[in-house]
């Protein structure tokens, strides 16, 4: 079959399969709508509901459906040689609180729809292709304590830290990750014992579709982006500065131990460092997502004795992450000394940058040309499960779909026409993959 004939054949099959995706988007969205937005808690009811609905549709297609001991869902279209490691495509089905209906779900549903299209077209891939529904990617919203995020995929890949099942705390239930996994009907002891469910030896590669979380594709009027790399992170989730509570009118500047002003000085230093890196052409973003005093102790007429904050530092360059962490620790010590306060930064988690696999990127770009899809290569600033697959040694790639209103908010917007282009690309990729 010629390339143009294959493209036409797959396009017809994708169009015939799109009602499946629309049905799931609408059904999952309707049942997890929380006004505003959508809420599907990691290891909670909304996430479970989405997994159950997707599983039901996959079984109706005749796909092989299984789960691993952490609750990740696998929906497999058999290939010609079932002894070969499968391709996997998918994303997460949880959301942030009052988020959008597409962040995560678009990737899981695109993979399932692509498999439906291959079945409709009568195409038997060379090896198994699996659509994956991943648990607990939005861990930073639903878990506190010391953890490395992306708990579902990292559990499947054997990347959880030795004590992470105990140190990650589920905010809605106050359970440990171990308890949350068990309460959801899975097996945390088996997660700990291993072996990993997914390894570089039993997975051919991983391709994740996701809405873009920035404005680039919309600005350039492009339907899709092929991700070049994913930024690494330095994250401090529970940082504090301890000073002394005193009267705001009675204590002069030189005798104060003001936790808020000390914290603001540290955060300002980091902001200036961010600007310096950017001026030199480096890659860096920095966010203070939480900053507050103790609501039970704060007062208009009190010098604040404690401040709490978080740090989220991201870069595609590992050395930049290292230098920023060193700066945080160095400036915290110096500011603490001259302001008479003490910083406790807490446990700092690090995730390395992840470059997407060059051959998979090239194949996806080839597909956009063959299918006539408007696309470009693009870096990724947010964390994704594809980065964890890369860190586990599994060749990985990402496809972004245009999204006009950002993500992690109720106004996420993805045109189904753009989603269709993403599904066409996935179906084309797996139809011809070795």
Account of the 3D structure:
40% of the residues lie in helices and 22% in strands. Strand 1 (64-67) and strand 2 form a beta hairpin. It has helices at 3-31, 45-60, 105-121, 139-142, 151-156, 164-167, 177-183, 188-193, 216-219, 259-279, 318-339, 358-371, 385-391, 416-432, and strands at 64-67, 73-77, 87-92, 129-134, 143-145, 168-170, 175-176, 205-211, 224-230, 232-242, 246-247, 285-287, 291-292, 302-303, 306-315, 342-344, 348-351, 354-355, 375-380, 396-401. The chain is of the alpha+beta class. Helix 1 (3-31) packs across helix 3 (105-121) and helix 1 crosses helix 14. Strands 1, 2, 3, 4, 8, 9, 18, 19 and 20 form a nine-stranded mixed sheet that branches. Strands 10, 12, 13, 15, 16 and 17 form a six-stranded antiparallel sheet that branches. Strands 5-6-7 form a three-stranded antiparallel sheet. The protein contains 14 helices and 20 strands.
Structural topology:
Elements: H1 3-31, H2 45-60, E1 64-67, E2 73-77, E3 87-92, H3 105-121, E4 129-134, H4 139-142, E5 143-145, H5 151-156, H6 164-167, E6 168-170, E7 175-176, H7 177-183, H8 188-193, E8 205-211, H9 216-219, E9 224-230, E10 232-242, E11 246-247, H10 259-279, E12 285-287, E13 291-292, E14 302-303, E15 306-315, H11 318-339, E16 342-344, E17 348-351, E18 354-355, H12 358-371, E19 375-380, H13 385-391, E20 396-401, H14 416-432
Parallel strand pairs: 3-4, 3-8, 8-20, 9-19
Antiparallel strand pairs: 1-2, 2-4, 5-6, 6-7, 9-18, 9-20, 10-15, 10-16, 10-17, 11-14, 12-15, 13-15
Helix pairs in contact: 1-2, 1-3, 1-14, 3-14, 10-11, 12-14
């Amino acid at each position: 079959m010629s390339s143009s004939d294959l493209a036409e054949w797959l396009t017809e099959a994708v169009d015939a399969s799109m009602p499946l995706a629309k049905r799931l988007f609408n059904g999952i969205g309707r049942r997890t709508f929380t006004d505003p937005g959508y809420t599907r808690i990691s290891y909670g009811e909304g996430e479970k509901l989405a997994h159950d609905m997707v599983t039901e549709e996959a079984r109706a297609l005749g796909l092989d459906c299984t789960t691993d001991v952490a609750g990740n869902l696998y929906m497999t279209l058999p290939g010609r040689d079932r002894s070969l490691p499968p391709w996997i495509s998918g994303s997460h089905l949880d959301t942030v609180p009052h988020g959008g209906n597409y962040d995560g779900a678009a990737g899981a549903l695109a993979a399932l729809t692509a498999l439906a299209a291959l079945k409709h077209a009568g195409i038997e891939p060379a090896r198994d292709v699996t659509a994956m529904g991943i648990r607990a990617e939005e861990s930073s919203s639903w878990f506190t304590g010391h953890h490395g995020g992306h708990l579902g995929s990292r559990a499947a890949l054997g990347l959880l830290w030795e004590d992470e099942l105990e140190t990650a705390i589920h905010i809605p239930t106050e359970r440990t990750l171990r308890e949350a996994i068990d309460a959801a009907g899975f097996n945390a002891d088996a997660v700990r014992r291993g072996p990993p469910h997914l390894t570089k030896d039993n997975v051919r590669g991983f391709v994740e579709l996701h809405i873009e979380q920035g404005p680039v594709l919309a600005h350039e009027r492009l339907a899709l982006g092929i991700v070049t790399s994913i930024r690494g992170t330095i994250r401090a989730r529970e940082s504090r500065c301890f000073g002394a509570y005193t009267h705001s009118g009675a204590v002069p500047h030189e005798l104060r131990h003001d936790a808020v002003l000390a914290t603001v000085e540290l955060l300002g230093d980091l902001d200036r460092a961010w600007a310096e890196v950017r001026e030199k052409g480096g890659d860096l973003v920095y966010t203070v997502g939480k900053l507050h005093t103790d609501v039970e102790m704060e007062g208009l007429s009190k010098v604040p004795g404690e401040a709490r904050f978080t740090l989220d530092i991201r870069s595609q360059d590992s050395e930049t992450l290292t230098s920023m962490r060193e700066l945080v620790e160095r400036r915290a010590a110096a500011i603490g000394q001259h302001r008479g306060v003490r910083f406790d930064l807490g446990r700092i988690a690090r995730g390395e940058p992840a470059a997407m696999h060059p051959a998979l990127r090239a194949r996806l770009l080839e597909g956009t040309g063959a299918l006539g899809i408007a696309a470009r290569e693009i870096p990724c600033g947010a964390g994704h499960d594809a980065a964890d697959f890369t860190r586990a040694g599994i060749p990985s790639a990402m496809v972004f779909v245009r999204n006009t209103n950002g993500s992690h908010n109720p106004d996420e917007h993805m045109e189904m026409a753009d989603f269709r282009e993403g599904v066409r690309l996935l179906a084309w990729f797996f139809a011809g993959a070795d």
